[in-house]
Amino acid sequence: MDSFRAEQLIRIYVDGWKEYNPTKILSTLDPDCVLIESQGQIIRGAQQIIREVEKRIAGEYGPWKISRWDITTLVVAGSLCFLEWNFEGQRSFEGASLVRYTEDKIRSVREYRTTQPLWEEGQQ
């Protein structure tokens, strides 16, 4: 996959989450896509990922919102993409994702996030 298409797919994917748009998210996913969320949940298959998105939008787990999800770094290397991001919803944190692609879709997303506020030595 060329770098432009890979970047375009991940930006559409993130925008779909921010817009609460399952159709937009689905358009980027390989049918066998795997999503490993930063809290540890593994969701297998594009349709199952979309069902999970719809549950969150419907509030099945309580209040859910995305106020902000900004990509701050995005690097594509062949069939891999690495991105760093700032997220704000019920909580705020920084994170990163490793994305793998098939020929034309997202094959997997593995998310990581900070669990404590960032700090530097001597600033505690």
From TrEMBL:
Q: Name one Pfam family in it.
A: SnoaL_2
- Domain of life of the organism in this record? Bacteria
Stretches of the chain forming a coiled coil according to its record: none
Residues annotated as domain SnoaL-like:
11-107
Instruction: Give the residue spans that cross the bilayer.
Output: none
Designated name of the protein: Nuclear transport factor 2 family protein
**Origin species:** Ktedonosporobacter rubrisoli
